[in-house]
Each structure stands twice: as C-alpha cells, then as structure tokens.
Amino acid sequence: MTHNKTLISIVGPTAIGKTALSIKLAQHFNTEIISADSRQFFKEMSIGTAVPSQEELKGAPHHFIQHQSIKDNFNVGDFERAAISKIKELHQINSTLVMVGGSGLYVKAVTKGLDYFPEVDSSIRTNLNLEFENDGLANLQEQLKKLDPQAYKSIAIDNPQRVIRALEICIGTKKPYSSFLTNPEKQRDFRTISIGLNAERSIIYDRINQRVDIMIENGLLEEAESLFPYKHLNALNTVGYKELFAYFEGNSTLDFAISEIKKNTRRFAKRQLTWFRKDDSIKWFDFETDTKEIIKYIESYK
C-alpha cells in the first residue's frame, strides 16, 4: 500500500460538530470533502438531515451531498464503488482528502470494504417488508433471534432495514447472516487516519435537542409535509420524517412527534458511538478540542 495518499475520516455521533471540523481540515490541507452521511445523499431532504448550509458548502468542495433522489435506488454498495472512484480521481490532484459522516457502514465501505453477501430471491425482501408493515418490527426481531442469535445481538436491532437485510440473508441462504461477516479487509491504495469527536452523553443529548428545535424553526414540518406522499420510500424511513408522518396521519400530537424525534435521534447517537467504539484505529478528541491539536496529530503521521 502506498502511503503518499491519505484519507482523513471524521466520525462521531450526530450533532457533535463533524461538519465544522471537516471544513477547517479541508481548508488547512487545501482539499475536498467526501460525505459519508447516507441521509444527506438525497436532494429532497435538507432540513431533517442537517445538510451543510450554503455558507458551509462554499467553505470547501463537497461530494455526495444531495446528488440522488429519494426515488433512486442508491445503496451502500453503490456508494462504495462511486466513492472509491471519486477518491482515486481526487487523489491525482491532492494527496490528502477529508471524509466525514456518521453512517458507520458507509464509512466502513470506503475504508475497509463491505462484506460479501450472496444474491437472494428478491421476493424474500418483499415479503419481509409486508410483514413489517402488517405486524411491526418486534415480530421480525423474534425471527432473527431464532435464526441468528449472534446477529440479533450485534446489529442495530431497532433499525428495520438492518433487521430485514439480516433476515433475508438467513432465509435466502439458509445460513446465519453473521457467518458472512468474516471477509478480510480490502486493500486500499490510500491510508486512513480516523478522527472521532465525542463529548459527555449529557452534552451530546443537549446538542441533539437544540438541533431538533432549530430544524423545526427552519421549516422541517413543511419539508416533511411535502415528502408525505412518498413516505413508503426507503429513504424516508428515517428519524425526523417518520415521526412527523405519524403526526400527519393523526396518530400523535405535534409536541409528541417532536419529542419522539429528539428521543430517536438520541438513540441513533448511542448506536453510532457503539459502532465506532469497536474500531481501535479511531483517535478520539473532545468536541471542543482546538483544531490545531487535531492537525498536529494528523501531521505527526507524515
């Protein structure tokens, strides 16, 4: 592996300040930013996914921000191929690039490659989606617990997409989903320096609550209302939208929907930290650390 090409990967829980740090680092290294935030890929979703502001986007060139439609089928495998191709292209111009995002699987896809799963009959997923709509998530969780206890313990069990994905592999291959998670890492032609931002849990939760309030002030309700006709699409089965869809359907009050967004975002942040803490290569910094200190750490690698 050549070490003259570097990818600085910035991770951490939602609302911790990853965007601001990524722009400062991109400006310092005079380089560009790859977004690995799977919620920010979609051009119809701005407010609820905390897409960088116009001012922030002007701070450094960004890639993979609002480049897809919610109607497009763009999965983590597609992202891996597109991001690696873009990194290769940009590394011709600048030996250091910045990647930022809290979507652990998407970060892993770029830095280490995805695990290989065999193709299974697409009707299995269709049936599982129907089961989810009719009987809820708990029923699917129970199935997974029986078929693959290890996956049940290790995946984000309250994320319907992850549970359905694990189940379709179990059913389609008649082997546990977890048995496919042993593939060796792919060799990349760049090295990754991973930076994690963190804070005390109470601070993270306060920042999340404040961010949700700001999103509401900035028009999240109107944005969600315009997307309500597409609520069945996979991209919209996400925090910040599904709670408001329940409100539009008359199943909750607006105050309750907002409190659910806050609660579910806090849970999401907890899952993000659980995922990233498994990676020993991440160097953690307090979210208030001076950027100069982080730059010093990165440059000590060179």
TrEMBL record:
Organism placement in taxonomy: Bacteria, Pseudomonadati, Bacteroidota, Flavobacteriia, Flavobacteriales
Reactions accelerated catalytically: adenosine(37) in tRNA + dimethylallyl diphosphate = N(6)-dimethylallyladenosine(37) in tRNA + diphosphate
Gene designation: miaA
PANTHER family linked: TRNA DIMETHYLALLYLTRANSFERASE
Function according to Swiss-Prot or TrEMBL: Catalyzes the transfer of a dimethylallyl group onto the adenine at position 37 in tRNAs that read codons beginning with uridine, leading to the formation of N6-(dimethylallyl)adenosine (i(6)A).
Xref: NCBIfam families: miaA (TIGR00174)
Binding residues annotated for substrate, in chain numbering: 14-19
UniProt cross-references to InterPro entries, sorted A to Z: Dimethylallyltransferase (IPR039657), IPT (IPR018022), P-loop_NTPase (IPR027417)
Cofactor: Mg(2+)
GO molecular function, one term: ATP binding
Sites annotated Interaction with substrate tRNA: 103, 125
Gene Ontology biological process terms from the UniProt entry: tRNA modification
Protein keywords: ATP-binding, Magnesium, Nucleotide-binding, Transferase, tRNA processing
EC number(s) given by UniProt: 2.5.1.75
A Pfam family per the record: IPPT
Location of region: Interaction with substrate tRNA: 37-40, 161-165
Assembly information from the UniProt record: Monomer.
Family under the similarity heading: Belongs to the IPP transferase family.
Sequence positions that bind ATP: 12-19
Name assigned to this protein: tRNA dimethylallyltransferase
